[in-house]
Amino acid sequence: MRTPLPVLVGIAATAVIGLVLPFVLDRGGLALYIDVALSACVVVGISLLMGFAGQVSLGQTVFFAIGGYTAAVLVLNDYTTAVPVLNGVPPALVGMVAAPVVAGVIALLLGIPLLRLHGHHLAFATIAMHLIFLVVVQQSEPLGGSVGLMGIPGLSVGPFDLAGHQSMAFVSLGVLALVMLVAHNVVASRPGRALRALATSETAAESAGVPVGRYKLLVFALSGAFAGLAGSVWAYYVGYLSPEMFPVSMSITFVVMAAVGGMGSIWGALFGTVLIKVVVSSLGTLGTASGMPDYAPAVMSYAVYGLVLVLVLLFLPHGVVPEIRDRLLPLLGPRRARPPQGGGSTPREAESGATADSEPVTSQSGAGVQPSGHGAPGSS
Amino acid sequence: MSDPAKATVKTPASQPREHGVIEVSDLVVRYGAATALQGVSLSVGAGEMVALVGPNGAGKSTLVDTLSRVVRPASGHARVKGRLAHVPEGRQLFGELSVEDNLRIGAWGQRDRDPEPVYEVLPDLRDFARRKAAALSGGQQQMVAIGRALMARPDVIAVDELSLGLAPKVVSDLAAHLRTLNSERGMAVLLIEQNARLAFELCSRAYVLEAGRMVVSGSCEELARSNEVARAYLGGGTGDEL
Amino acid sequence: MTQFLMFLINGIAIGCGFALVGSGLVAVYRITGVVNFAQGMFAVVAALSATSFVAMGVWHGLAELMAISVGGLAGLITGVIAVGKRGTQPLTALLVTLAVGFLAYAVEVLIWGENPRSLAGLDGRAELMGVPVQRQYLLVIAVTVVVFVLLWLFFSRTYLGKALTACASNPYAARVVGIDVTRMAFIAFALGGVLGGIAGVLIAPLRPVSFDTDVSLIVGGFAAAIFGGLTRPMMALLGGVLLGITEVMIQAYGNASFATMGSLVFLLVIMIWQATRRPTVHKESV
Question: Care to name a GO molecular-function term for this sequence (chain C) (predicted)?
Answer without folding.
Answer: transmembrane transporter activity
